[in-house]
């Protein structure tokens, strides 16, 4: 059964995530406030960021950087700075 959340990224009601995909308080905030659609968009951006910055996810600094980018993207409407990537205009 799907659940609906008011997605802070998309600013509309949308299908919520099926379960908490990220640990801790931030994970709960994402689960409560971010839609499947916005999460899927973030996953694509995250992959681009990991590749571009050659992030090693075993490194705490890499995880911290990615988490900051994720919060900015999901909750503050910030596009991550990805070299050579131009977001589609709305």
From TrEMBL:
Q: Which Gene3D superfamilies match?
A: Fe(II) trafficking protein YggX
Question: Which SUPFAM superfamilies does this UniProt record tie to the protein?
Answer: YggX-like (SSF111148)
**Entry keyword Iron:** yes
The source's domain of life comes to Bacteria
Entries under Pfam families matching the protein: Iron_traffic
Query: What keywords tag this UniProt record?
Result: Iron
Keyword flag Manganese: no
Function noted in UniProt: Could be a mediator in iron transactions between iron acquisition and iron-requiring processes, such as synthesis and/or repair of Fe-S clusters in biosynthetic enzymes.
**NCBIfam families tied to this protein:** PRK05408.1
Q: Which family does the record assign?
A: Belongs to the Fe(2+)-trafficking protein family.
What protein am I looking at?
Probable Fe(2+)-trafficking protein
Species in which this protein is naturally found: Fluctibacter halophilus
């Amino acid at each position: 059964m799907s659940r609906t959340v008011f997605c802070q990224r998309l600013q509309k009601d949308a299908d919520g995530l099926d379960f908490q995909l990220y640990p801790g308080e931030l994970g709960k905030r994402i689960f409560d406030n971010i839609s499947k659609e916005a999460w899927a968009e973030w996953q694509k951006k995250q992959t681009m960021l990991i590749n571009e910055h050659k992030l090693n996810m075993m490194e705490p600094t890499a995880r911290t950087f990615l988490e900051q980018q994720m919060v900015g993207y999901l909750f503050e409407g910030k596009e991550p700075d990805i070299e050579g990537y131009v977001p589609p205009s709305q």
